[in-house]
Amino acid sequence: MAHFKVEHLSIAFGGIRAVNDVSFEIEHNKIFSIIGPNGSGKTTIFNMISGIYKPNEGEVVLENENLVGLRPDTIARKGVARTFQNIQLFGNATVMDNLMLGRHIHMKTGIVSGACMWGKRSRAAREEIRHREVIEHIIDFLDLQSLRDQFVSNLPYGKRKLVELGRALALEPKVLLLDEPSAGMNTEEKDDLRIWIKDIQEDYKVTILLIEHDMNMVMGISDRILAINQGVKIIEGTPQEVQKHPDVVAAYLGEED
């Protein structure tokens, strides 16, 4: 079972501490949300977890292994998948191709070696079938059947966000980082997303770490919430505990996203 924790994470840019001594722990198969005003350090924490930034101090531990210092692709291979605030898909490729790209870290047979092997019982053929099965399940799960052969650039924004979510699931992660998944979505799309995130928790048994400005979504689906401001932890607790905390109310007072 994936056990995930962040211990004493700190990073500074130009002498200014963007994140200062932040620690938290997530139980397997729980939804843990990080909230805070714009510029409070939320995405910086995600960037340290996923290996884009190397923290000045602290550890990111998955199943007793410290991931700090590993390359982003190695961290992905260890079981940490991520969606981004700004969609990172290949617009001139189809939905199916984008989802298959999410399988690349699991592909043991390269293109050249695959071409040299033949027959249905070859390792390459078995591997291809396995990858296709994973992707077909995701397409059914996210109801993307009618879009599978369409170019991503032709899709509405909300559907593109879903494809990015699907590509993260294609990595078969132990920990799924969702960075502002509902940004740019309309009310109906947000309602659907809430259901999908809960379904991912139930069906995929994955630990979910969420950054989200929509407080209705956060309070409705989170098991625990961490509130930060200016890179410092304010409170961690249940949704009920966090939304009553005076510093959380003050941090959000008058802020609209």
Please explain how this structure is put together.
- This protein is α/β, with parallel strands linked by helices and 257 residues long.
- Helix content is 39%, strand content 23%.
- It is built from ten helices and ten strands.
- The chain has helices at 42-49, 72-78, 95-101, 111-116, 123-141, 157-170, 187-204, 215-221, 239-244, 246-252; strands at 4-13, 16-26, 31-35, 57-62, 65-66, 80-83, 175-179, 207-211, 224-229, 232-237.
- The strands form two sheets. A six-stranded mixed sheet has the order 6-7-8-3-9-10, sandwiched between helices. It has a four-stranded antiparallel sheet with strand order 2-1-4-5, covered by helices on one side.
- A hairpin with a 2-residue loop joins strand 1 and strand 2.
- Helix 3 runs parallel beside helix 6 (157-170).
- The protein is globular, with a radius of gyration of 19 Å.
- Residues 109-118 have low confidence and may be disordered.
Q: How big is the Rg?
A: 19 Å
Would you report the number of β strands? 10
Mind describing the biggest β-sheet?
6 strands, mixed
Q: What low-confidence regions span 5 or more consecutive residues with pLDDT below 50?
A: 109-118
Lateral strand order in the biggest sheet:
6-7-8-3-9-10
Task: Compute the number of helices.
Answer: 10
Q: What is the overall silhouette? A: globular
Q: Kindly report the average pLDDT value.
A: 87
Task: State the share of residues found in helices, binned by percent.
Answer: 25-40%
* SSE order, one letter for each helix or strand: EEEHEEHEHHHHEHEHEEHH
Percentage of β-strand residues = 15-25%
Tell me the structural class: alpha/beta
